[in-house]
Design brief:
CATH architecture: Alpha-Beta Complex
Shape: globular
Strand content: 25-35%
Largest sheet: 10 strands, mixed
Distance between the termini: 38 Å
Radius of gyration: 17 Å
Helix content: 10-25%
CATH superfamily: Nucleoside Triphosphate Pyrophosphohydrolase
CATH class: Alpha Beta
Low-confidence stretches: 228-246
Amino acid sequence: MAKEQVFVVDRAAMFDGDWPQGFHPIPDPGSFLQQAHQRGRFVDRDEAERTPAWKQWIPYCMLRCGDWSERGAPEERGVLLVQRTKKGGEARLHGSWTVGLGGHIEPCDAPTSDPTAPDAGSFFRAALARELDEELLLPPGPMPEPRLLGLINDDGTEVGQVHAGLAYCVDLPMPLAAARAATGIREVSKMRGGFTHLADLSDLWHTPAQFESWSQFLIQAVVVGAKGGRSWCGPTAAEDGSGLGS
């Protein structure tokens, strides 16, 4: 049986090996993804999980529903919130709550044997779409285009030392009640949850340690920072010109 392979980049190949910690907006997503793509390669997953000199790229997506513009009704907004169970594949995350779903990039996500051939953005989005389809029951029809929010990195955990997150967001054009009815968890043995009102998310956020570290960074940067009256999907640091360089 062939060994499972995942897409990695050498830690030394980006940021001069000194990777930033936490969540960081990316001001030029196209250029950043092109570098992440061209400098990466597929390796055996078993080896990648024990090699901190490599970073496994993980498309990590937050799903929202409702209208997040200033004219949108707050009671119709929600975010997909799930808890990982003991049957999930990553034992180090069992029991954690998360607002991000996704997973490893596999050779099937590359349309040719040459990983530098496809468009970089399409390459990462293809991996994300496959992972979301495996994990969730999604509304019929085409999904909205994922929007890249930034980089997530946490070398302070065993999991984070060998992974790096590409944080995306998908906005479903439907109110909270409709999103709850139209979506569900496909891998019910590995996770539980669904679309949740921000008030319920806020209750859990009283104890941030309940969330995996990547979700802690994402909630702090994208949710908490948006609750002071402005829309969650208002200008980000990436859009106003500040944030992470490549």
